[in-house]
Specification:
Length: 262
């Protein structure tokens, strides 16, 4: 029987015997150049898959090795120490075939952590729909996500509105010039509204190589005309209104990575 979210805490403690060795226990032969995943394992804390708290239907990023590809898939469930069940990867609406034995890396965010695990394809099931069994990870690493302050960015976004503000067609393009966990500074040539108006920021970010699309409700707090090399533009200060826990985690993670990148 597949284990669902409510059954995560019933997983056997046997998984703890397969945790990664401590950094100080790595042998000299491991000092050769590593992939991004291997480098991250040096900085990450070992964790059992069952303790991640992933819900059935959770979005995962799956990376294949040969050829190198990246897909967003869904976790259907898992059987401890045996397999993880995932939806079939797709590209442009068409299913992408994975072969038995193909090596893949899974990445996802859960609670306040980002995890990565290497595994391989065990089996493909075609009925009643296509899904895959992946080997239950023997090694799993997770990074705790820290909070960051306001950072300077140059992030193209689309601004939308659910209200008829009499400002023409939506969505409208803009650039986020500064970003924090509570709000953003938007640069645009178009009028987005007045102070107090509600708008929605649509943006795409990548956190630890996991791609996420966010829709963030905002309230315009101020507007001013600024001069740039390309001429006069509007600069809007917006405050984030209501963020889901998942979107807030994604945003904080993105801010932290941007801050570290300097």
């Amino acid at each position: 029987m597949l284990h669902r979210t409510s059954q995560l805490n019933r997983t056997s403690d046997r998984s703890s015997s397969r945790l990664l060795p401590a950094v100080g226990q790595r042998s000299m032969q491991d000092e050769s150049p590593k992939s991004t995943y291997e480098q991250n394992k040096r900085q990450a804390a070992p964790l059992s898959f069952a303790k991640l708290g992933l819900e059935v239907g959770a979005a995962l990023t799956m990376e294949t090795v040969s050829p190198a590809r990246k897909f967003t898939i869904r976790m259907i469930g898992y059987v401890p120490d045996r397999s993880i069940l995932i939806s079939a990867p797709t590209r442009e609406g068409k299913e992408v075939l994975l072969e038995k034995g193909d090596k893949v890396t899974l990445r996802a965010m859960s609670r306040n952590r980002v995890f990565a695990a290497e595994t391989r394809v065990l089996y493909r099931t075609l009925q009643p729909y296509t899904y895959y069994h992946l080997a239950f990870p023997s090694e799993l690493t997770a990074h705790e996500i820290r909070k960051a302050s306001r950072v300077r960015v140059d992030l193209p976004v689309m601004i939308d509105s659910e209200f008829d503000l009499g400002l023409g067609e939506w969505p409208k393009s803009a650039i986020i010039e500064d970003l924090s966990k509570d709000g953003a500074g938007l640069l645009t040539r178009q009028i987005l509204g007045e102070a107090g108006h509600e708008v929605i920021i649509n943006l795409s970010v990548s956190v630890s190589e996991i791609h996420r699309d966010l829709e963030i409700p905002c309230i315009i707090r101020n507007r001013e005309v600024v001069q740039r090399a390309s001429g006069s533009q509007y600069f809007y200060g917006v405050q984030f209104d209501t963020l889901s826990d998942e979107d807030r985690l994604t945003l904080n993670s993105f801010l932290y990575e941007m801050e570290q990148a300097g």
